[in-house]
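Hey L., structure's done. Input below.
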Amino acid sequence: MYEWIKALHVIAVISWMAGMLYLPRLFVYHCEAEPGSKQSETFKVMEWRLLKVIINPAMIVTWLAGLYMAWAAPWYTSPWFHAKFVLVLILSGVHGFFSRWVKDFRADRNTRSQKFYRIINEVPTGLMILIVILVIVKPF
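Output:
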């Protein structure tokens, strides 16, 4: 059963990260659209669906499968896992910010620039790289 849960976890992580890498790019393009325009309304739908249909469910499955594996292995006693866990908590916090910004865009309350979203787009990438290194290399 463990190997099936691991496969599910990897699929969920890939889905979560795909959304986490794409959503801030949508924010960059959404900044260019005039509030209330057809283009802005299209971005609102795209962002909302991406968040609700892909990112949120993928994060939930990632967490559930990951917690099962941490308990079953038991990885929770390993120092590399503690570091990974902290990074996943941070990534989940970034997810929370993205959710808030989707709501801001939906209400035409965005106050951030394209540059901000271009920079923030790199945060999930950096976290993903560190998490993958910890899981594969297990440096400590």
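The chain has one domain: 2-137. The CA atoms of residues 17 and 124 lie 7 Å apart.

-- N.
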